[in-house]
Queue: 2 jobs
Job 1
Amino acid sequence: MEQVLFWICGVVSIVFAVMMILKRNPVHSALCLIVVFLCLAVSYLLLGAEFLAAVQVIVYAGAIMVLFLFVIMLLNLDDEVHSPGKPRMALIAGSSIGSGLILLFLLTGGVFKALSGTRGAEKVVAGNTQAVAELLFTKYLLPFEVTSILLLAAIIGAIVLAGKKG
Amino acid sequence: MGLISTITFLPLIGAALVAIGPREKSTTLKAIALAVTLLTFFISIGLFTGFAVGDGDFQFVEERPWVEGLGIKYKVGIDGISLFLVLLSTLLSVVAVAASWADIQKRVKEFLICLLLLETGMIGVFVSLDLFLFYVFWEVMLIPMYLLIGVWGNPARRVYAAVKFFIYTMFGSLLMLVAILVLYFYHGSSTGTYSFDLISCYALKIPLSMQIWLFLAFGLAFAIKVPMFPFHTWLPDAHTEAPTVGSVLLAAVLLKMGTYGFLRFNLPLFPEASVMFVPLLAGLALVGIIYGALVAMVQADVKRLVAFSSVSHLGFVVLGIFALNVEGMTGAMLQMLNHGFSTGALFLIVGMLYERRHTRLIADFGGLSKVMPVFATFFMIVTLSSIGLPGLNGFVGEFLILLGAFRTEPLWAVFAALGVILAAVYMLWMFQRVMFGEVDKEENRTLKDLSLREVAILLVMAFFIVQFGVYPKPYIDRIEPSVKVVLKRVEERTALKDAGRGEPIKRVIFTQHEKKQAVQE
Amino acid sequence: MINYIWMVTLFPLIGVVLNGLAGVKFPRKVTGAIGSLAILGSFLTACLIFAEVLRLPAAQRTSEVVLFTWIACGSLLVNIGFLVDPLSLVMLLTVSGVSFIIHIYSMGYMAEDEGFRRYFTYLNLFVFFMLILVSANSFLLMFVGWEGVGLCSYLLIGFWYQRRAPADAGKKAFVVNRIGDYGFLLAMMLIFVTFKTLDFSTVFAAAPHTLESGGLAVTLITLLLFLGACGKSAQIPLYVWLPDAMEGPTPVSALIHAATMVTAGVYMVVRCSVLYSLAPLSMDVVAIIGCLTAIYAASIGLMQNDIKRVLAYSTISQLGYMFLACGVGAFSAGIFHLVTHAFFKALLFLGAGSVMHGMAGELDMRKMGALKSKMPWTYWTFLIGTLALAGIFPFAGFFSKDEILWDVLQKSTVLWAGGAIGAFMTAFYMFRAVFMTFHGESRVDEQVHVHESPRVMLIPLGVLALLSVAGGFIGLPLIEGGNRLKEFLVPVIALAGHGAAAQHGAHEAGFEAVMMVVSLGVALAGIALAWLMYIKNPAVPEKLSERLSGLYRLIYNKYFVDEACAAVIVEPVKNGSLFLWRACDNKVIDGAVNGSGAVMLRASRILQRVQTGMVQGYALGFVGGVIAVLYIVFAM
Amino acid sequence: MVDTTQYLVLGAILFCLGVAGVFIRRNAIVIFMCIELMLNAVNLTFIAISRSLGSIDGQVFVFFIMTVAAAEAAVGLAIILSLYRRRQTINVDEVNLLKW
């Protein structure tokens, strides 16, 4: 059962990711991206990270993508015309992606080899959110506080940058 | 706070005073600067009077730890070699401030600060006995000079000239820094204590292979400063673009740091290498003499002509140093001072002409000696002194150098003496085109003669020009012992025979009984 | 009184200081007076010292007065001191005497010149340096006088600096002198290396046993010294500056280029007679060059039309005689001719000066003629001078020139023949000058109002004429004790005793008398030829010049020496240094320096291309970097 | 039970697609979205490995990554907005002021 669900999410997310890249209209790309995020949320569930799945849906699909859509709408961008003068760039991009993919496959193999020996028991931890919260507020308290400041900075930055120019 | 430290840092305090002073009232600023430089000069006369004549070693030595960890000490002191160079710097700083009274209009405050900083740098270089301290002052002296040329030079190519001057000297001094560090570590490894102290470095036994590289590194830095033949192209540019005062100080004092460096560092620290490089450096010096004189002949710009004449004169000095005998080196020391006065005065004179006519091309002048008779007499005296007319200061130094060179290698003297003829040719040709002939150009007719201030300055220079020529004994008595010390240090570890006579290294010439001696040796 | 010798040189110095610095406000008379009195002072002191030395026995006549040490460095010790001995006294007397007379003369001659004060300052400075040169006690001090005199001749030749020609002539004189001084300088260094000192007394005392006679060292020293002498006394290679030196005021030519400065070379050779007698090769070189110069200069003198140029070439020729005398070892004869020449040559120059003064600056003899009636006093004094120069019996020139010719005959008949030809030519061109200016029909154009010079100029002419006549009697040949000058000089020249050819046997006397008549005859023949060509039928010179036009033009243009030396020396040096500066300095060295700067610039421009401005290009860089790192870390 | 390698492969593919998207697309916002995609791919690998290691730390990291992503998105969009306001375009090629 889990296997089937994984394959569905995997295929759907890849298909929609490719569509996101190829779509002319930015809004369509945004929508495709939302679908990809949802599939990922499902995979998090499969991996037993319910809390993160929820956060994923809320934060990414909910907040960030809405923000994206909002900005796209604000700038009412027309379709991206295929800029003529850039065949060269596409070529480079294509080749680099190809090589990148191959390399990454190698790496994942390599990484996995290093990790293979440590397959711990996949115990499903009850109360995933409690565990995450407990860990978050003990061991990772400092990063937690730092991220709050980071968010504050981001807010101020966004206001200043996008604020009403005099 | 010993005598030397006061002299070195008084101008610095003066610079601070000027910095505080009111910007718009430029005359008060100049007055402060003049007062400070005069005070420094009078104190430095204390050095002269307190100097023990017969003693060749360092006197007035002050030593205070600076950075113990690295073994860097604040050690200063003078001997016969640096005594008169310090006096020259203090005196010429006074002359510089006086000469720049009317000359500099814009940014007077910064100008005076640069001048006083330059003075500190100059004196510091001549008095420091710690290699690190020497290098610090060497760089300190560079920056104000760069600013002097770059900011107050004449607008045409001053930036090019300033940058060229800076990069040329910097290139050389970086190599010197490397050499100093090598010396430092070698000193550490061979004697256990890491120190930059010059005196203890003198005692080091450096293997010949290392000596050669160190000699070349130090030598290059000093050769660029002298300037010797291949490295001299910065001098004409720096001189033509520098303000009058800038080129006076540049010619009179800064050029001497190169030759002083040879005497203070290259010869005593690396004797075997020095003896090895004598033919090379003497050769370059000879080329410098003849080349400088020949090229000076065809210059259309007076300042450029005088610059090339300095290349020729300093070629003599280097030849004197590398004759490696008492007469040659004492003559070289004297010629350094003479060149300071005669070329300094020449630049002052050209500056005065430039102030009146705002041009330096010889062709623009003609028949000035009728229009400005007082100016003509001073110009005549200085020209004759730079030609080396006996009775004036140039001759004593030049004759001793030629004598020293002749003792070591007669051929050197034969070529070097050619420089004496060429000097007469280009100086008199220039003098004739500027001063004689009829007053054909309209602007020359209305030039006003020297003001009282200008006469006072030139009188000071003329006094020393004559005094050196007629009675050089007090200077020679103080220089000779220190030169003998340096020579003895070179002789101890090289093939040269007894220090006093400084017999020629290779062959002895002419007289029968000396031939017999040569056979025995 | 001897140790007041430094007073002799001090007086002119006081004159220079007074006239030069304080004299701006003095009226002309006072300036002239100060100048002349200063020289008179030194002349009188010289006479007092001369009298005192005369009373001393011959042996102790040389003494040295040292003032202070000038340079004491290493093994070199030079002090400022003066040598009082017969030779220097003779020179002192001649120099101060003649210059005093010329000072008086120039008070009149330069009366209306606006550079009057400057002129007297320079003249006094010149006499100061000349007296130092003559009475120095060491080579170095003599060199000080040597170059000082060169400087003053530069200043005085270029006195009228407004005009271009004098300025050029001055510069030429100084440079050519400097070339001579180059030789002197090298000789001094050689002497110092050999003897460890530069003082005359020690050098000449040590010379015979330190230097091997005829050896390389002594020959080189003497030849270099002679090069210096040639520079100063205008001998063959370095005489080019003297004819141009006539651009200066005439009293200057009289003083510097006739009486004193040019004789400095002869004095130096005589002073170093000890060294020269040790180097026979150098003696021959001196003699040959002397003889050559005598003939060569006389030949050019034949064709000159400018009266001062004629006298200039005759000076060069007479100097040739003096060197000829020294070359054959007759140093005292050389000095004797030097002294007499100083008198009559100064007289001739001053005479020419007063002719110029009367003719409002006209120098070209072709525009003169029949001035005899208008300027009688000048004519008669000029005639006496010419007779003395030509070597006619009772006059000074006869005795001194004859003594030289006689001593030369002892050595080699060829040189004697040269000397005789020279004498013939001298007599010819001198009388040609006299006939063209004073006799024949007047070619003077009308508006020139010819007048006799003022008395202040004529008295000096008279005195010099008297000296030209009486001068000869201090060196009478044949009669015992007649040659008082030679006896007086013996202590100085005796040092070189064995070199001199002084064996006057009894039977020689008759032969010498015959030779005196022969030289007198040669001189008279010259005069007769001149009279024939310029008085009897003036057409002859034109006809002669057409027929030998090639030779005539050659001699007239002074053998094209000036143009040749300009082309051979001056141009190549100028172009060479131009090339040196342009090619070597600018292109090579500056090129390398700026080149390194340019290379840096070009390299940085290539690197700039990386900044394409394309954001994605940079991203590509990142990814590439990441891949590379991962590859290295994991796959390697 | 789905083993971790498959998740890692999925994450890798998504990541490469994100990278490709960044190069291919001209529109700044779409590039921005691709970057978000890449971030999520990384999150996926994090969680997959955290599960295989059996420790929660990985998930906490993902949590932090998400906050950073949010902050970054906000600021990024603000930048794009001001860029658009100034240059009236967000086509990456035309924003090449830093070009030499």
Job 2
Amino acid sequence: MEFLINSLLLLMLVATVFAIVRLKRLMIGVMLMGFFSLLSANIFMVLDAVDVAFTEAAVGAGVSTIFFLAALAIVGRTSKPQNATRTFVPLAAVIITGALLVYASFDMPYFGSHDAPAHNHVVPRYLNDSPNEVGPPNIVTSVLASYRGYDTLGEVGVVFTAFIGVFLLLGAGTRKSGVERPAPPNVQAESMRQKVVLREVSDLLIAPVLIFALYVQWHGDFGPGGGFQAGVIFASGVILYALIYGIVPAQKVFPPRKLAYFPGIGFLLYALVGVVSMMRGGNFLDYGVLVHDPLHGQHYGILIIELGVGITVAAVMINIFFSLSERSL
Amino acid sequence: MIEQLPAIQLLLTLLAAPICSMLRNGDHAWRLATAATWLSTVVAIMLLIQVWDGGVISYQMGGWPPPWGIEVRIDELNALVLLLVTLFGSLVITALRESLRGVMRHQRQSLYYTTFLLCFAALIGITITADAFNVFVFLEVSSLSTYALIARGRDRRALTASFRYLIMGTIGATFILIAIGFLYMVTGTLNMQDLSERLPAHWDNRVIQASLAFFTVGIALKVAVFPLHYWLPNAYTYAPKATTAFLAATATKVSLYVMIRFLFDVYGIEFAFEKMQLSTILVPLSIAGILIASLVAIFQNDAKRLLAWSSVAQLSYMVLGLALLNASGITAAISHMFNHAMMKAGLFLALAAMIYRVNSSKLHDLAGIGRTMPLTTGAFAVMGVGLIGVPMTAGFVSKWYLISGTLDKGWLPLAALLIVSSLMAVVYIGKIIDVAYFKPAPPQHADVREAPLSMLIPCWIFALLTIYFGLDTRITAGLAGRVAQSYLGVS
Amino acid sequence: MIAGLFNYWIVIVLMMAGLYIVMSSGHLVKKIVGLNIFQTAVFILFISMGKIAGGTAPIIDSAITLYSNPLTHVLILTAIVVGVATTALGLAIAVRIHEAYDTVEEDEITAMDAQSLHEENTASLAAESDK
Amino acid sequence: MTDSTLLLLALLVPLAGGLLLTLQSNSPNTRDVISLVTATLLFLIVLSLYPAVLSGDTPSIVLAEPIKGLSFSLEAEPLGLLFATIASGLWILTTLYGMGYMRGNNETNQTRFFFCFAISISAAMGIAFAGNLMTLFVFYEMLTLATYPLVTHKGNEDARRGGRIYLGILMFTSIGFLLFATLWTFNLAGTLDFQPGGILREHVGPGTAMILLTLFAFGTGKAALMPFHRWLPAAMVAPTPVSALLHAVAVVKAGVFTILKITIYIFGIDLIADTGAGTIVMWVATFTLVVASIVALTKDNLKARLAYSTVGQLSYVIVGAMLANAAGIIGATMQIAMHAMGKITLFFCAGAIYVATHKTEISDMRGLGYRMPFTFAAFFIGSLSIIGLPPLGGSWAKWHLLMGSIEATQWIIVAALLVSSLLNIAYLIPVAARAFYMAPDSPDKGPTTIAEAPLLCVVPLCITAAGSVLLFFFGDSLNQLISLIPLRATQP
Amino acid sequence: MSMALDIVSLILLCAGSFFCITAGVGLMRMPDFYTRAHAASILDSMGAGLIILGLTLQAPSYLVAIKLLFTFFFLMITGLAAIHALAQSVNVAGVNPKLANIVQRLHKNLNDGRTRSITGAVTDGDNSPTDSDNNRGDGK
């Protein structure tokens, strides 16, 4: 049954991709890409990767689609038909690469097999010992935040870098904040009238979204979720507000100048946990030494770094959205 | 304290980056950035001293033993790369302040330094880690910051160059990710040490073979191995002045380090080169790269682009050295990695100083600059001579080893080709020097003054280092030779 | 065998389709779309290899004994973040390109670049012949 | 002060002098005094090395060892010391002459000129005292680069074209062939040190030896073997002191010196004699020495004629080296010294004529002998020395070379040497003869008015002319040094 | 009790599935945008909604049931609001229902013109291609 659903979803993915390949209208292409992400989130769900599914849904189908749309609003929505010479080389390259992959696939451990080496070398310790060593029942969280906490620091670094990069290229808040292109008054009023339903609905939704973000943030130890997902969800709440009410009101609530500090703060928070653990005689990011009891130490450490991740991600996503959409004003 | 050094090495710049982003004042940001990078240079030197006698430093991130946690591992090879990244990076950052003045607003400046620091930290991260996936993560941090840095160039073509690099770089990184995934699929571990122990049992596994193929293509994109160098010339040409120096010195070199680490350590020589015959692909490609890129460089009339093409050629030297697979060749590759980083950074920095004054890197705008900016041009000439490979400069040492490597293999024609390529280097460097010294300055550049001290001093440090490492090669060729011995001795 | 490798094959098709979009498309934004698809397909590959038949999500519960591989999940979480970061930066650059060139079609940009390179070259030739 | 410090000083003194004089660019007198003092000091340093070398020592110093088995080192052995003596001794005269010439012609950029001059001499010292092939190569390239600004000194399009040919050929041959051969040698022998009896003996077969030697000979572009001789006439665009430096003191002598060094200390004459490795080079050199003389005949421009004469005379040295016997080596070494003395005289004369009358063509020089008797007398003496007639120094060199070729039973070479000497007479004697025996073009200039070039020009050329004569009579004491050389050329 | 719950949930699930299928058919067969949007909204509200309700009755614990109810609630709100926004912006963009009469269409065209919202494409539906040109940023 699982296999059937899985295969069905995969086939849908293939159909989506081919639609995207053939489409000239980018707008639809981007929408389909969001759909593609949502489908893959479903697949992740079926394949037991709940945290990944969560993230993919929030990021792929959510935030990154919005980024795409914001960019499309600036660069236009259609692409020219590609010329024929362009198709041959890519096709050849793709076929060769694909053939290589198919060649390799014959030696791959079968899908779902229990005795694949991937499951039997490093992972057993995570599964068996992590409740006693780290604590959280969600093993993904304990691996992410503790065993491979250093990777996650790098991941926050990636997000932070993207923020700095976008900031450096487009500017945020410093450029035109407060100068919205004045629309004719009647149009403005008209637009507000048309949006009345949306406004009401979003009023109803934004608060639950933000609360849900906090829930995901603090509940990441026990169920799917964690700082990253929480940050994205929080950001999407704010983005929703900005979409409905306009960027300027949103920027009044979250002034970009101040918001620009937060990615750094979150990042620092994360790294400082590591520094504190170094000062207390442990290795970098060794939460066990934070307090007297190692298990408690792990717990506190994970909470704090997840908070750092959450702050950074939320602030970065909101900032990037502001930066991108400001350009279209 | 001393056992925490590997973490401190990374943290200095990694922590400085967010703080730097919060500073409104560009000068303060610069001070912070230079302090952090120079301190990290000191740490790198301390680490190098620690591993000098063949010792290996292992540091467990989060206190988890490998392969469960992420290990940081410093041996002779990456201690050398660390020194490369930190020392040359610091020198460039020191010169950066003057280069940015007047071009960028204060707030932007601190962001720029932040990006620099992130790139710097990520390169350190790539260098010290012993975890295959961690390499990918930090590779992405460094790549993203690189894209942003390049896109800040003045010409609009900087944007396209950056975008092209982004696309190719991301494909490359994803290929590497696939390769790492395949490795994990078969071995169940991500730790490099562990991987190298577990891989020999799976040599016949097609997944591992495909993994090698994907890794090679992916990293070749990052290293800019011919013919995947497509992104490099434009990226270097249109990146902001001093930034090019930083990128040329560090980014491709660290990618090359990753290549060495994976091919020689993780996959192992026997698998990568003997079973999969990687050399038969790499040698012709790198020879073609050397000759074609040198030839293209000769016909450039923009000094920056000329040097960029020269970089493609020089990177091919390193790849060739690796593919030769003998002691001299590997020594050549590793020491040339260091030497070329130094010389190219210096050359681009000197060029940046010239551009700072004349606002162009076109050859005809650089005419007569040897008279108006004698000190800068002098430094440029010294490093140019080094790049050619004239004895008593650093470039000579590595080229010598490279040619010895080809001769050891008995490939006389190849040695001759390498000498021909050196001749080409004479021509393209000579072209710049000829213009600088023996052509009259155009009237609009008659009142050009010498570059400011803060740029001039780093330039000359690079120039003097070029000579120093041409005479005392214990750090470069000595270490590289030992690394080569250890690789070849094991197999 | 078909059941065991079906997932991988589909993933390969997806990956290659994404790669094809990146390489063949002339529109910069569409290239990034392709990149996204390519990366997402790689994510599915990783998650597929972490799946254990009959296993559940790796959240410890006393009633469950068989869990899927949590490590691949962690890796892919990180990779997703990397993906979105790349996307954001790529879009930012694309937006800047649009402002600078007034187009995001690669062919047109290449033509404009070639044009300006040509102008520079003729300018430097002129400067040469002046002397 | 130890001898090895002296070696280092021989390099550093001209460098320091050069740097010092750039600081004095505003006061020409101080600058020139510095040049002169430096030159004298250098000569004294070189002379003070003699006792040690004559007693059989080889003072040496290792500067750096970047690659295992490959160092930058200096050592003083007889051949090098001889070259150093010639170069440093003639440098004093060239400096003196250069002052007169440059001032007499009101040349620009005099400071750069003397600076590059000093660097060139430093490089020449480096070549003379190089302890191994790599060090020699470094200084060889340094010499090329340092003389490039001298060649293009005038800065016009002609000079630049000449400079390009100069740099192009020298760089191409040295990097393309010399460096390649050097690398190959290192790969074969594992060392590049100059060792008595050579280092290649156990490592090469006849074929490889021949290829290597040929590569070396053509790689040393400064030795002007045909077809890589074009740079020499091209470099004639340079001011005359430079030509003197190029053709007598530093550059060409560095070239043949390099070949001699390689023959003696890398191959060893035994190896060459046994394997016949020198055959190709020997015949090319023989060809060169005849053809260059013929070409010289056709040239009307005095400097061009002298240039082709140089091409020919250099080949004597190469032929001598390739004969691979003691007499040949001695002859070759002597030829270096004698030709230096003779040729520099001729160039000094050519420059003096140019300064005094601005004439460059031989056909214009009729009757000038009466206006410039000292100059042309010196020219005559120099010509005789080049031709190799007693009682002038050149005759010793030619004598030993003839002996060597007879000993090697190379009758064709004997014939070629003789023919070439005849040709030398044919192209050199007419110059002086015209000046003394033919009536000047314009009768209005009284033949008896003496209007010599500035004193600073004339004195050096008289000294060198006298030197040529003295070398004949004191050839024996020179022999004492030179006869040490063949001892080192064979396996100890 | 559980039997009754099962039956109710079965009915709900079947009804939901039925609506899904009809919505699918509607999407394929309906003549113009607005009617298709209507079909799609059926999918969201009745199809997915009923299925979720049916699943709620099957939930093993109260926590799950509550979560599903939350989902139901948000699905109702967001799905319908989304369809509304889509239809609204298409209407603003000047696309007319095929089924409306011609006089009304003309009247609308005269009065409305085009209106834009702040973030342009994000809330707008599938506009005519020319619209994109006006959405461009105004350069550096």
